[in-house]
Write a structure and sequence with these properties.
Immunoglobulin-like, six-stranded mixed beta sheet, 13% helix
C-alpha cells in the first residue's frame, strides 16, 4: 500500500480549491476545525465575484483518511479509502473524462478499462487520483495551485455519477458557506451547488453556473485537528491549508448610463449611451466549450433615434479591457454584428451580438458598447405622462452553462433622461386668465425656438441647427383655450445641454386684446440650475429662481426647487403668472417717458407762472394809468 501517496492527495485537495498563498510557520497557533468553508472568488482584475449568500451547496464524501502522519504540527502523509457508495466504476468514468485516451507512461485504456503502469502500477484508483491529479498553477477564482483542466473534468464527472449519494447541505450567509463535517466523516469531498442557481431572481441574476469543486477537511490525530499539509513540489517545501476554497463561479454585470454630465434634454439633443459588462472566463475550466450567445438587445423609448440614414447604429463602438476598465481597446467590426430588431413593433430597437470567436478572444475581459441617440420629441399632446418618458433599456443574453447549450442568463438595465418644464399663464390684475399674450424667450440674447403642440398647450425647446429646428416657432403664446376654459401653457426641455445655471429672459411682445403692452413691456428672468447632490454626474434636482425687477407687481413667482422628477422623467419647477393691465399708469415708465412727462409738467408750470406775472404786470400798468400808488404783492 502506497501510504505516502496521501501527500499528493492533499495536494489535490488544496491545490484544486484552497486560497492558501504561502507557508504558515506555526499552524497550531490558530484554532483548527474540520469544517469546509467556501467564500466568494478573489481572482483576477476583471473577475466580478458573485455572492455565496443564499446559495445552497452539498458536500459528497468521496474518500476517507487513513494512517495520517503528523510532524511539527503539520500533516506529512496519509492514505485514502473509498467512501460508502463510491465505486471504482465511478472513478474510472471520472478519470476517463479527464483523459479519454489515457496518458502515455501512466495508464492505458482498453475497452473502457484503465490499466495503470510504471510507478502507478500497484495503486488503487483513488490513490492514483491523489498521486496524479494535482494543480499546476492557480485559477482565476483566487485558488492557488489549482490550474488543472484535468481536475475540473474529474470533478464534473463525479458530480454527475455521485449526485444521488448522501450529502451534507449548507446555505451561505454573511459572505461564506460553512459545511459542518462530523468528526467521523473527515476526508475528501466533492462540492456542488444544489439546486441549480435560479438565474431569473435578483439575488443570482447574471451568475455563471458554479463549477464542481474538490477539497479535503482537516484530519484528526489523537484528538487534535490538523489543517496544514507540508509537502514538496520538486525541491520546494510547500504548505497548504485544507478545508477552505473560493467559489468557482463568476458574476456578469450590466450597466447602462449617459456619459454626458447632464441628463437634461431638449428636442434635437444628442446623447451618448454607454453599456458596460464583462465576458465570463468560458474556457478556463472548459477548453472545448464554445459559447453561442452574448447579445445586447437595445430598446430605446420611441422618442430616441439611434440610427444613421443607412440604418446602421449611430456612432456605434465596442471596446474591450483586460485591466478592469482602466484602458480600453477598440474591437474590430468583424467581432460583432449589428441589426435592427425585427421581432418587435418598435422601429428603433436594435441588436448587437459578439461572434463566438470574439467571445473566446475576449473571455475574462470587460466590454464597453457606446452609441448616440437623438431626442426627437418630449411629452406632447397626451394625457399619458409615461407616453414620452425618455427611457433607454438594454437586455444582455449570454451563455452561462457549459453542460446545457440552451441555458442562458439575462440581465437588464436602463437609463432615464429628464426634461425640465415650467408653466406660464397670463391674467388681468384680478387674476382672470387671459389669452393672446406673446413672449420671446432668450438666453444670452439668443432667441430660443420651440416646437408647438397642435392645440397650443405645449412648447418644447428645440436645439438650434437640429433637424426639428425647421418646424419651430420663435415665440410662445401664453394661455390656450381648452373648450372655453383658459389654461396655462407648458414650456418643456429647459436647462438642457448645460450642467450649470441657465438664465432665460422672458419679454412680452404682444398684449392680450384690450390690454396695454406699453413702451416698457413686462420682462423677467427664470434661472434654472441642475443639482448633483451626490457628485456622481446624475441630476437629482433643479433649482428655480425668478427675478422680475421693476415688474415685481406683475410677475407672481410660483416656481420651486425640485428634488425628484415627476412621473419618473421630468422636473416640474412650477408656474409663473404674468399680470396685465388696461391702465398705462400701472406700468413702470421708461426713462424717456418719464423725462417727457417731467418736461411737460415743467412747461405747464412755466406757462402758468408767465400768466400770473402777465396779470400782475397788467394790473400795475392800469394802476399807474389811474394814478394809484399800489404795488405788486
Amino acid at each position: 500500500m502506497h501510504k505516502r501517496t496521501g501527500l499528493a492527495v492533499i495536494a489535490l485537495l488544496s491545490i484544486t480549491a484552497t486560497f492558501a498563498t504561502g507557508l504558515i510557520a506555526n499552524a497550531d497557533e490558530t484554532s483548527a476545525n474540520n469544517d469546509i468553508t467556501i467564500t466568494a472568488p478573489a481572482g483576477g482584475t476583471n473577475l466580478i465575484a458573485p455572492t455565496v449568500d443564499g446559495r445552497t451547496f452539498k458536500a459528497i464524501r468521496i474518500a476517507g483518511y487513513k494512517d495520517v502522519a503528523v510532524k511539527d504540527g503539520k500533516i506529512t502523509g496519509f492514505d485514502l479509502t473509498l467512501a460508502d457508495g463510491v465505486t471504482d466504476s465511478a472513478l474510472t468514468t471520472a478519470i476517463l473524462a479527464a483523459y479519454p485516451s489515457g496518458v502515455e507512461s501512466v495508464f492505458t485504456v482498453t475497452d473502457g478499462k484503465i490499466t495503470l503502469q510504471g510507478a502507478y502500477e500497484n495503486m488503487t484508483l483513488i490513490q492514483f487520483i491523489g498521486q496524479y491529479f494535482y494543480g499546476n498553477g492557480s485559477d482565476v477564482y483566487g485558488n492557488t495551485n489549482a490550474g488543472s483542466e484535468a481536475v475540473r473534468k474529474l470533478a464534473d464527472s463525479l458530480m454527475g455519477s455521485l449526485s444521488s449519494n448522501p450529502a451534507i447541505t449548507a446555505i451561505g450567509s454573511e459572505g461564506k458557506v460553512v459545511i459542518d463535517v462530523p468528526d467521523d466523516r473527515e476526508g475528501l469531498y466533492l462540492i456542488v451547488e444544489e439546486p441549480k442557481i435560479d438565474t431569473t431572481t435578483d439575488a443570482f441574476k447574471g451568475e455563471t453556473v458554479s463549477r464542481a469543486m474538490l477539497t479535503g477537511t482537516g484530519a484528526t490525530v489523537d484528538g487534535t485537528i490538523y489543517t496544514q499539509v507540508s509537502t514538496k513540489h520538486g525541491d520546494t517545501d510547500v504548505t497548504y491549508t485544507l478545508g477552505a476554497l473560493n467559489l468557482k463561479a463568476e458574476k456578469v454585470t450590466l450597466d447602462k448610463e449617459v456619459e454626458h454630465p447632464d441628463q437634461l434634454i431638449q428636442i434635437g439633443t444628442s446623447r451618448q449611451f454607454t453599456i458596460t459588462t464583462n465576458v465570463p472566463n468560458y474556457q478556463t475550466d472548459y477548453p472545448t466549450w464554445t459559447p453561442t450567445t452574448f447579445q445586447f438587445t437595445d430598446n430605446p423609448s420611441d422618442n430616441i433615434d439611434p440610427f444613421n440614414t443607412d440604418g446602421t447604429v449611430r456612432n456605434l463602438k465596442l471596446q474591450s479591457s483586460n485591466d478592469g476598465g482602466t484602458t480600453w481597446t477598440d474591437m474590430v467590426a468583424s467581432e460583432y454584428t449589428q441589426a435592427k430588431n425585427t421581432t418587435t413593433e418598435d422601429s428603433n430597437d436594435f441588436i448587437v451580438a459578439l461572434t463566438p470567436a470574439a467571445l473566446i478572444a475576449h473571455q475574462g475581459e470587460r466590454i464597453k458598447l457606446t452609441y448616440d441617440g437623438v431626442i426627437t420629441s418630449l411629452k406632447m399632446d397626451t394625457a399619458d405622462d409615461d407616453a414620452h418618458t425618455t427611457l433607454n433599456t438594454v437586455d444582455l443574453d449570454f451563455s452561462n452553462n457549459p453542460n446545457v447549450a440552451d441555458d442562458k442568463a439575462r440581465l437588464t438595465d436602463d437609463v432615464n433622461l429628464y426634461d425640465v418644464k415650467l408653466d406660464i399663464e397670463k391674467t388681468d390684475m384680478q387674476t382672470r386668465k387671459l389669452l393672446g399674450a406673446r413672449f420671446d424667450v432668450t438666453v444670452g440674447g439668443t432667441k430660443i425656438k420651440f416646437i408647438k403642440s397642435a392645440n397650443g398647450d405645449q412648447y418644447t425647446a428645440v436645439k438650434a441647427g437640429s433637424a426639428q429646428d425647421a418646424n419651430s416657432v420663435d415665440s410662445i403664446s401664453v394661455g390656450y383655450d381648452d373648450n372655453g376654459t383658459v389654461k396655462p401653457v407648458t414650456i418643456n426641455g429647459l436647462a438642457a445641454d448645460n450642467s450649470g445655471a441657465t438664465v432665460y429672459t422672458f419679454t412680452e411682445t404682444q398684449a392680450p386684446e384690450g390690454y396695454i403692452l406699453g413702451a416698457n413691456p413686462v420682462t423677467f428672468t427664470v434661472t434654472l440650475t441642475p443639482k448633483d447632490a451626490n457628485s456622481d454626474g446624475t441630476v437629482d434636482g433643479v433649482d428655480a429662481a425668478v427675478n422680475a425687477g421693476t415688474f415685481g407687481n406683475f410677475v407672481v413667482n410660483g416656481t420651486s426647487n425640485t428634488n425628484a422628477p415627476v412621473s419618473g422623467h421630468e422636473f416640474n419647477v412650477g408656474q409663473v403668472t404674468v399680470k396685465n393691465t388696461k391702465n398705462i399708469s400701472d406700468l413702470p415708465q421708461t426713462g424717456g417717458t418719464i423725462s417727457k412727462a417731467i418736461g411737460a409738467a415743467l412747461a405747464t408750470g412755466a406757462f402758468a407762472t408767465l400768466l400770473i406775472v402777465g396779470v400782475k404786470l397788467r394790473r400795475k400798468q392800469m394802476s399807474d394809468e389811474n394814478g394809484s400808488t399800489s404795488s405788486m404783492a
